[in-house]
Specification:
With 577 residues, this protein is an alpha/beta fold. It has helices at residues 15-28, 43-55, 61-64, 70-75, 86-95, 126-140, 146-155, 159-162, 166-182, 188-193, 218-228, 252-257, 276-286, 338-347, 369-382, 389-396, 409-413, 431-437, 472-485, 517-523, 528-542; strands at 3-9, 36-40, 67-69, 205-210, 231-238, 265-268, 307-311, 327-331, 352-354, 363-365, 387-388, 428-429, 494-497, 506-512, 545-552. A six-stranded parallel beta sheet has the order 3-2-4-5-1-6, sandwiched between helices. It has a five-stranded parallel beta sheet with strand order 7-15-14-8-13, with no helix packed on it.
């Protein structure tokens, strides 16, 4: 019989530290690593947990390897481990235009490594990204039949799904199934679903820990249930008040109602993040509005009062923000992050945001990372130091026309044709070498912006209205403005949807109270589950702040209606900034 424990902790209450301490205690009790399993969900999270265990808790590498993503755990039990990678994605997209009966097998050596597995996003192809988002959500609801997926689209509140034609969904999904079968490939959802049959045998464990359990989908819960049946102790760790992924199939109610004796439910009693005023605001004004919750309560950090204020004009922040400022700008939807990005661009301030590409858990910068590397490498060359061959290739690709000997650019910027010595990881190339041997004509005394011209894919267009820049000239002007303010071109500023900053914190959080029409409508729907989802999103956003919470009133523009979220209407209680 499995004994179930639940550990609940509010924002900054140290849930991760608590479960790692329990894990460490198990090892001190001489429990063998193969008797322990800890399940996480993002690669980056698991990587950080492993490093923390080894550095701070002195875990051995074998002990740290007990921490796995749920996908990695399931994949390790499958015979077919050939995964769907970006090369297969490109090939599949090209084949969608051809009748499957005329498809040819893949030619070439494509990666099938689990590390290269990719999903789909709207960044590369809006229509395909939407269809595969629908398919993914349905499969996490344990729906895999084509007609049932179409019905799932009809029943969904997602307007993008409603715009899809049944025939489009059927053609893409059926073609995708045939493509995977022909190439013996599996994707992220396959890793989980194919581990569910009884023919796949999971080993027995003494202790299993599941982090962020409030965010599990039906498909993921099915995996946890299978693991738990052969385990002595199951720890479900999370916070139902921070369950904000119902839109993609997460089931907070399953975490709340999963059978567990009351004596085995533990609440972590102190937030090490929230100061008094912010703690008071979120626990008295936001949490009571959630209809269904487990009743977690906790005290503030005791690290000062903190402050809450309102702001109606971002220009009031002019000159107050630096690239190293500890700030999160967040909004309910990405479109409502636009006032923040526009302000930062005008100020010449770089920021980071959650990558929109596939399932990356990393952050991308408002300036292309390779462009930043090129600027730094030019500075290295100007100081008499050398740079690596791969960086020479990237740098040459960004040179203004006429700064390489005519006819040599293609030869020098392709890995297949460039000089073999560029592949030597230990060799460094100085400016003198590049000029004397490798056709560089650029003047070393010139600043980078007179040597390079950068290009970006984030240019506004009819099908990409949310992009950042008017054209490449606009982008280059922005890069130069940022560089003139801070030559390091680093940033501690985050701009994101509230979902994108979950698990993060900064000294200052600026949250847009404009909730957008669809999310505002959900909150006002009278349906408790929808109201709770929006309330929890508001709670997560507000609780990223360690010292200051600033509520931005939204940008009233022609053709844009501001839908202010009622729980962030604090104008009568707090002074304006």
């Amino acid at each position: 019989m499995t004994r179930v424990y639940k550990i609940l902790g509010g924002p900054g209450c140290g849930k991760t530290t608590e479960i790692l301490n329990i894990l460490g205690q198990k090892f001190r009790e001489k429990l063998h690593p193969n008797q322990v399993l800890m399940i996480g969900f993002a690669k980056a999270t698991v990587k950080n947990l492993r490093e923390k265990c080894m550095d701070e808790l002195k875990f051995s590498e074998e002990q740290a390897d007990t921490i796995k993503t749920i996908h990695k755990y399931c994949l390790d039990h499958l015979t077919n481990r050939s995964v769907f990678t970006k090369e297969f994605k490109r090939d599949f997209k090209s084949k969608l235009k051809i009748d499957p009966s005329n498809w040819r097998f893949i030619d070439g050596d494509f990666s099938i490594s689990e590390e290269d597995c990719v999903g789909w996003s709207e960044v590369e192809d809006k229509k395909l990204g939407t269809i595969f988002k629908l398919i993914g959500y349905a499969r996490h609801k344990l729906i895999s039949d084509t007609q049932e997926i179409i019905k799932f689209a009809h029943d969904s509140d997602n307007l993008n799904f409603a715009r899809l034609k049944d025939s489009e969904i059927e053609w893409v999904y059926e073609s995708y199934l045939k493509y995977k079968k022909a190439n013996t490939l599996i994707d992220f959802e396959d890793m989980l679903s194919r581990a569910l049959p009884d023919s796949i045998v999971f080993q027995s464990y003494d202790t299993v820990m599941v982090d962020e359990a409030q965010d599990l989908t039906d498909l993921e819960w099915a995996i946890i249930d299978k693991i738990a049946k052969k385990s002595n102790n199951l720890y479900l760790v999370g916070d139902d008040d921070q369950g904000i992924y119902g839109w993609k199939g997460s089931e907070v109610s399953k975490f709340q109602t999963w059978p567990c004796d009351e004596k085995d439910i533990r609440f972590l009693k102190k937030s090490y993040r929230l100061p008094t005023n912010i703690h008071h605001f979120v626990t008295t004004e936001i949490l009571p509005e959630i209809h269904t919750r487990m009743g977690n309560t906790y005290t503030s950090s005791g690290k000062g009062h903190g402050s809450i204020s309102t702001l109606n004009d971002l220009e009031r922040l002019k000159g107050m923000i630096r690239q190293n400022s500890s700030i999160i700008f967040c909004a309910r939807t990405w479109s409502n992050c636009k006032p923040f990005t526009q302000f930062l661009m005008r100020e010449g301030i770089q920021w980071k945001q959650k990558s929109k590409d596939n399932r990356s858990a990393g952050l991308e910068t408002s300036i292309n990372a390779n462009d930043i590397i090129t600027i730094h490498n030019w500075q290295r060359l100007r100081s008499g130091r050398g740079i690596k061959g791969k960086d020479v290739i990237h740098m040459y690709g960004r040179l203004i026309d006429g700064l390489l000997v005519e006819g040599k650019k293609t030869y020098l910027t392709k890995k297949e044709t460039c000089p073999k010595e560029f592949a030597d990881k230990d060799k460094l190339f100085t400016y003198k070498e590049l000029k004397d041997k490798y056709y560089l004509l650029a003047d070393i005394d010139k600043p980078w912006h007179e040597v390079f011209y950068f290009e970006t894919t984030r240019i506004k267009a009819p099908n990409n209205k949310g992009a950042l820049f008017d054209d490449n000239d606009h982008y280059n002007e922005y890069v130069r403005l940022c560089w003139e303010k801070d030559a390091n071109l680093d940033s501690n500023i985050l701009v994101s949807t509230i979902h994108g900053v979950k698990g993060m914190e900064r000294e200052v959080v600026i949250i847009n109270s404009d909730w957008g029409p669809m999310c505002y409508k959900a909150f006002q729907s009278g349906i408790p589950a929808k109201e709770d989802e929006e309330t929890r999103v508001c709670y997560v956003g507000a609780t990223r702040a360690k010292q200051k919470l600033i509520v931005y009133g939204g940008q009233q523009e022609k053709g844009h209606t501001v839908y202010r979220f009622p729980l962030l209407n604090i104008g009568r209680k707090y002074e304006f900034i």
